[in-house]
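Protocol step 4 of 6: structure prediction from sequence.
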Amino acid sequence: MENRKNLLVFDSNSVLYRAYHALPPLTTKKGELVNGIYGFLLVFFKLVKEFQPNFVFACFDFPAPTFRHQKFKEYKINRPPTPKELSQQIPKLKEVLEAFGVRCFEKEGFEADDLIGTISQKSPFPTIIVSGDSDLLQLVDEKTKVYLLKKGVKESSLYDLKLFRERFENLEPSQILDLKALAGDPSDNIPGVKGIGKKTAFQLLKKFQNLENLYQRIEQEKKLSPKIKKILLEAKEQIFLAKELLKLKKANFDFEFKEWELDEEKAKKILSRFEFQSLIKRLPEIKKKDKIEKEQSKQKRLFDL
């Protein structure tokens, strides 16, 4: 990405959730719990330093049911309710990010994933999406990578097309919808088809590419066993509903690619409020290289005088 502008987009609820559960309780002198915010910022500092983004966005889930809940009442029902101690950190995280100059987005009726999908499709720049949600791997292409967090926030994989194909037996990112519709996705309470495990799902997609082709040819296909045919035909409605739920929906909302600029004084002020002294010391790490070079050049000119 040298000499090219790039975009960093955070799936904020996902990263905050992982940070909250990965770190021990951390409170301010006033008793505010801030471990999720602190963990999020550790990820933020690491990735801004590593990728030197020109644009930084943060997308949030809107705190209300979406069209997915209307279509499938059991959608995400297996997830435990968000702990009050975590939900109270969401508005504070937005406050921190806005003080850092990061543009935050949410839209009624949509999940953060939908907003991220809309942004990445409209972005003319190389894009890195930060999330703990593998659904977003459907966005991986020549321009878009997904930085997928695992086991809290310490482990991660940066998925480009090459890594995706290696990890998913040469499937394409668009096929992850078909794979999860067949094999299920426990995190979203999408059940999968009984009798069709991941191994069979991979085999079907390698042969038929997608669900539409599979069902178009299922009656004539002689190499499919009668048992598998029966299972697939009986589960057809469930399978296509699952794919629809997993597919990202285009969201109409206003955003522009405005260059990200860190206001160090604002950042210091908000970090002081939450008593993140160690992060105040690290602020120079996330300054843009070109800004540092300009400051050094200015200091050199003053010294030369």
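Step 5 (inspection) to follow. The first strand starts at residue 7 and ends at 11.
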